[in-house]
Design brief:
This protein is an alpha/beta fold. Helices cover 59% and strands 13% of the residues. The structure holds adenosine-5'-diphosphate. Adenosine-5'-diphosphate binds next to helix 1, helix 2 and helix 3.
Length: 197
């Protein structure tokens, strides 16, 4: 029964960490980026609507993204918990998620923020763009995504910090060590918040 979110700038390794954390906590990882990419490659209606935003490094409009997540959160496999990766990214998405969860009588247990300096993110992105040839990973697009992260997603991080459910993790260094640090930090946070006071 663990409902988690992971938030981090582009290039922070958020997707990789999400998979490890989801496995550790025994919940499905739900990545909006993966769902969009899979729809784009299958040329579904949603994929066709989302493609131009992904390629341009812009956010898919909130109404499309919210509808997608709302639908996904009704699936049976997430009824006992999940790790949302890449959502919410804007303040209106965060409000929407609150009402989706409230409608089910649930709330979030913890929000993991992966932090890394911009210069390091940029260097990683250069490497990744060369290795994978992801169309949304050109450097200009990357800078646009990083800028959007600072301008919009940071606000989402502040909302969760204000609620006292933010667990910030240093995302620089060895991926395996970052996973271990994140697991330890989240477990400690969950144990403290679940202890009867
Ligand atoms: P990252 O490489 O930053 O982890 P993701 O795989 O999470 O990127 O997302 C890839 C792209 O999918 C984003 O740049 C954006 O265009 C779109 N996307 C994913 N999640 C959202 C969201 N919550 N709101 C709007 N657009 C999104």
């Amino acid at each position: 029964m663990t409902r988690l979110l992971i938030i981090g700038p582009p290039g922070s390794g958020k997707g990789t960490q999400a998979e490890h954390l989801a496995r550790h906590f025994g919940v499905p990882a739900v990545s909006t980026g993966d769902i969009f990419r899979s729809n784009v490659s299958r040329k579904t209606e949603l994929g066709n609507q989302a493609a131009e935003y992904l390629d341009g490094g812009r956010f898919v409009p909130d109404h499309l993204t919210n509808a997608l997540v709302k639908d996904r959160l009704l699936d049976g496999d997430v009824s006992h918990g999940f790790l949302l990766d890449g959502y919410p990214r804007t303040a209106p998405q965060a409000t929407e998620l609150d009402s989706m969860l409230a409608a089910q009588g649930h709330g979030l247990d913890a929000v993991i923020e992966l932090r890394a300096p911009d210069a390091e993110l940029e260097e990683r992105m250069h490497r990744r763009a060369q290795e994978q040839g992801r169309t949304d990973d050109t450097i200009d697009v990357f800078r646009r995504r990083l800028d959007l992260y600072h301008r919009q997603t940071h606000e989402v991080v502040s909302v969760y910090a204000g609620r006292g459910i933010l667990v910030s993790v240093n995302g620089s260094g060895d991926p395996g060590e970052i996973t271990a640090l994140a697991i330890a930090a989240v477990e400690q946070f969950l144990a403290a918040s679940r202890r009867p006071s």
